[in-house]
# Entry
Amino acid sequence: MILAMANVGDVVRLVEIHGGRHLRRRLADLGLNIGMTVTVVTGISQGPIILAVKDSRLAIGRGMAKQIVVEKV
# Structure
């Protein structure tokens, strides 16, 4: 499933990124890499999705979230 479809509280593992080199680099700069586990903190129907990654929080836009394939842990 894609990250944009994950529910609040879901713990997911990043499996694949369907974007181009720019998106992959942007996510890597934010600390998001394939294989890591994140928790969805907020994911209302509009606006950014907030993720708990290690000891910090990241906001990912819906467009980015639609490019990231995840699996529930």
